[in-house]
Amino acid sequence: MSGTTMQKQPATGIPRKVAGLAIAGAVGGFLFGFDSSVVNGAVDAMQDHFILGDALTGFAVAVALLGCAVGAYLAGRIADAKGRIPAMKIGGILFLVSALGTGFAFSVYDLVFWRFVGGLGIGLASVIAPAYISEISPAKHRGRLASLQQLAITMGIFAALLSDALFANAAGGAAQELWFGLPAWRWMFLAAAVPAVVYFVIAMVLPESPRFLVLHGKEEEAAKVFKTIAPNEDAEISIREILDAVHADKMAARQGTLRGKRFGLMPVVWIGIILSMLQQFVGINVIFYYSTTLWKAVGFQEKDSLTISVVTAIVNILVTLVAIALVDKVGRRPILLVGSVGMALSLGTMALAFSTATGTGSDVSLSGAWGPVALVAANVFVVSFGASWGPLVWVLLGEIFPSRIRARALGLAAAAQWIANFAITLTFPSMAAASLPLTYGMYALFAVASFFFVMFKIPETNGMSLEQAETLFDKKPKAAKQS
Question: Cα 29 from chain centroid?
Fold first, then answer.
């Protein structure tokens, strides 16, 4: 099934040059995680400073996700027209502008605007990083290298929550003054300027994706990149495979179209969209956007809540490392299925724990052992997600789409993911105030749905070239069930 290309690959580990390029490309994922989670420690102080109600607070947090959806949608077009590297540079600029604008926001209106701008940068990074990493990675190592995107995201989340905790503790609270007359919550946002500059500098030195170069007739440049990143493989064979795949695509449909007979889109595009939405509908980002507020609501002090959030982020990093170690050995499907079971059980436990709570809204409290049970269940949920759906959805999105539409299809799938994330983030404060058991119960049902979607719609792509993996999703549903 793996063909001649697989036999030519060396038996040694990941080439150092490829690993370096993949790590550099994944820095966008770090900014993705940092910018999306830094609001966690700032949300209560921000709410008090601008005198916001629950609905407006939810919108101020979630508006970045609308920017993410727009950025992801545009990323594919920019990446296909100008290249993966120019798109990275634009993302770096947007990250920097957003960090400065949000940190110095003078009203809720410009705060919302700058968070939207930051979202544009996150959306770009969420598309370009997995596309770039997949396109420079050898087939036998692609799962691990593509998982670096999620590892970088988890490290960005950890860095954001850790810096939030350090700033808040240094000032004696997120709302307290820290340096130069600015409260700690503003420094939380300003800190994002540092990785934004690093990301832009890295983008200045990375080579362009060889598959992008081939698709634009720059085969000599592509051959040079292939020889650099895979010196033990025949660059001409790799280029021929890409050209053959593009020719087959042209014979089957008009070049570059995402259109199909099923509700206007190709079936593989719908698979990517549904994967992306299920990844968010389980409610993972509730833990990373609102965990500090959540644990304060069940009896923890602000300092302890921030510490718990940091510990949760560390757990997320560790289990992502586990996923990276297993993805090219065990395969995509088994890991996703086990993750779905773990998420469903832990979310169901959280729903049960909060069904015993007394009070409503910010006055909710858990008595007896239910507080620790809810805390453990939340971390089991993070473990289940971080070891499966977190990294592996990005792996699949990077490898299931045909070359001619990869960036645009990935952009559409990522946009759907951000819209789903926006819906969950926006509705959580109001839903939590109404009923936490129903909220977590709903997330548990989506986890169950994710299990059956993988079972019946996702074939195994482990060890295949990108061109081989693409063909699996053109088969009938029966074939898609095989692993």
Answer: 7
Give the model's pLDDT for residue 326.
80
Q: Which residues of 420-429 are buried (b: 16+ CB within 10 A; e: fewer)?
A: bbbebbbbbb
- CATH number of the domain located at residue range(s) 14-480 in this protein: 1.20.1250.20
**What are residue 177's DSSP bridge partners?**
183
Q: Which residue has the tokens 């770096």?
A: 92
Residue-wise pLDDT for 246-273, tens only, equals 565 555 444 444 555 555 577 788 888 9
Per the structure block, which two tokens stand in for 412?
Answer: 């559409």
Of residues 295 and 66, more confidently modeled: 66
Per-residue pLDDT at 469 exceeds 60: no
DSSP string, 39-63: HHHHHHHHHHHHT--HHHHHHHHHH
Cα–Cα distance measured from residue 264 to residue 86, given in angstroms and rounded to the nearest whole number: 30
| Short-list 31, 1, 56, 48, CA closest to 430 | 56
> Identity (one letter) of the amino acid at 393?
V
Q: Which residue has the higher pLDDT, 210 or 279?
A: 279
Mean per-residue pLDDT for 233-245?
A: 65
More confident residue, 8 or 68: 68
Helix (H, G, I), strand (E, B) or coil at 182: strand
Taking every pair of Cα atoms in the chain, the longest distance, rounded to a whole number of angstroms, is: 68
Name residue 365's beta-bridge partners: 358
Residues in the chain: 483
Can you count the helices (H) and strands (E) in the chain? 23, 2
